[in-house]
Amino acid sequence: MVASDERRDRAKFNPISQRTRALDIELEPKLQAEDFSLNQRYSSLVWQALEQEKISESKAAELLGMTIERLRLTRMEQEVYAVA
How far is CA 65 from CA 7, 12, 35, 39, in A? Predict the structure, then answer.
């Protein structure tokens, strides 16, 4: 009896109740992932960590959401187009 009263009291003072949180809907972003500078920064940091051998190829591929083969191809392309 006391516990249910406490819950009711908390719900009165809590602007976002447990029920409201459960009904929140996450909308799909309208922009592509590449359009966000944060994602560009993230991928840049992953590539930098891979270059410095702080993470493995498999970990970098996982973090970037690509296969190891695609990561290796992209890495070779970057070396070809790199400015000395």
Answer: 43, 44, 16, 12
5-25 per-position pLDDT tens digit: 676 666 666 655 555 555 566
Show me where the domains of the chain are located.
57-84
First to last CA, the chain: 74
Contact 72, 57 (CB under 8 A): yes
Query: How far apart, in whole angstroms, are the C-alpha atoms of residue 4 and residue 2?
Result: 6
Give the C-alpha separation, 33 to 65, whole Å: 12
Exposed (0-12), middle (13-18) or buried (19+): which is 61, by Cβ within 10 Å? buried
Q: Which amino acid, one-letter code, is at 82?
A: A
Give the Cα separation of 19 and 7 in Å (integer). 12
